[in-house]
Write a structure and sequence with these properties.
Strand content: under 5%
Number of helices: 15
Shape: globular
Order of helices and strands: HHHHEEHHHHHHHHHHH
CATH topology: Farnesyl Diphosphate Synthase
Strand order of the largest sheet: 1-2
Largest sheet: 2 strands, antiparallel
CATH class: Mainly Alpha
Bound molecules: geranylgeranyl diphosphate
Structural class: mainly alpha
């Protein structure tokens, strides 16, 4: 399959729908709308929504039915990046080749933009205006899946662990802590993307288990590649400075296991993700191609 064309088409579709979910605010709150729009349309790869759509496709579902959940995941991802860049967290000035949200709108509006994107994601998920009707019970299950992945048992827990271990690595069992950080900070939302697509598309329990395994392996591979790119990537392609993990004394796969082992682990995990789909037919080809792309990407 032509992954480049697939990604272009999917990105276009997702961006059209994302725009419809961006709330229009009155003039007094226009700063908030602008700050939300700025980061939502700053050139992200849209991996999480694309995974949700591809997962639905893999079980013969209608990608249209997944679009609200896919967009909600991108809202949450965007909030996490805005907050992660704040001075209180990573204090980054650049993301995706552009000044970070707080550099343009100030810290207060950046915090609020993150808050608004997170909260609005759940308004999208719980809205009665689904383009393809969805049963209330299924909608509630999706809300739970996303909340669980984004909150203290998922991404926020992982981010907290990541911040609290900075510079204190010797006090912990580094590989175990690293695994917790990776599976929670990054893995949980990617796993949820794959699962929500599958659940909305009525995957069987066996299909859901296989797709969950795919999502877990992909999530780990994705974060290990992020660590590799921070250590060795091209800042022009990444749109942000590199080697910041070392500056922040972050625990990364590269610092804990070394660069060669990180590359090896990423490829093994991508292979395991693909292997998890062995009972799926050609409809899962986009997911297989996405696993390969995850470990070959340059940004
Ligand atoms: C602030 C609650 C909170 C969480 C932050 C996402 C995150 C957790 C931190 C960002 C820093 C980082 C490197 C996280 C790992 C996840 C990751 C690789 C994020 C970047 O995702 P991409 O590559 O980003 O999908 P784009 O720019 O393509 O949208």
């Amino acid at each position: 399959m032509n992954l480049k064309q697939y990604l272009t088409e999917r990105t276009k579709l997702i961006e059209e729908v994302l725009l419809t979910y961006l709330p229009t605010l009155p003039k007094v709150a226009e700063q908030l709308e602008s700050a939300m729009r700025y980061s939502l349309f700053a050139g992200g790869k849209r991996i999480r929504p694309i995974l949700a759509l591809a997962s639905a496709e893999a079980v013969g579902g209608d990608p249209q039915a997944v679009l609200p959940a896919a967009c909600a995941l991108e809202f949450i991802h965007t909030y996490s990046l805005i907050h992660d860049d704040l001075p209180a967290m990573d204090d980054d000035d650049w993301r995706r080749g552009q000044p970070t949200n707080h550099k343009v709108f100030g810290e207060a509006q950046a915090i609020l933009a993150g808050d608004a994107l997170l909260t609005h994601a759940f308004a999208i998920l719980a809205s009665p205006d689904y383009p393809v009707p969805i049963e209330a019970e299924k909608a509630l299950r999706i809300v739970w899946e996303v909340a669980d992945a984004a909150g203290p048992l998922g991404m926020v827990g992982g981010q907290s662990a990541d911040i609290s271990q900075e510079g204190t690595v010797q006090e912990y069992d580094a590989p175990t802590v690293l695994r917790y950080i990776h599976t929670h900070k990054t893995g949980a939302l990617l796993r949820a993307a794959v699962r929500t697509g599958a659940i909305i598309a009525e995957a069987s329990p066996e299909q859901l288990a296989a797709l969950t395994l795919y999502g877990e392996n992909l999530g780990l591979a994705f974060q290990i590649c992020d660590d590799i790119l921070d250590a060795t990537g091209d800042p022009k392609l990444l749109g942000k400075p590199v080697k910041t993990d070392a500056q922040h004394k972050k625990l990364t796969y590269v610092t804990v296991h070394g660069l060669e082992e990180a590359k090896r682990a990423a490829y093994i995990l991508a292979d395991q993700a693909i292997e998890a789909l062995s009972d799926f037919d050609n409809a899962a080809e986009p997911l297989r191609a996405l696993a390969r792309y995850t470990v070959e990407r340059q940004n």
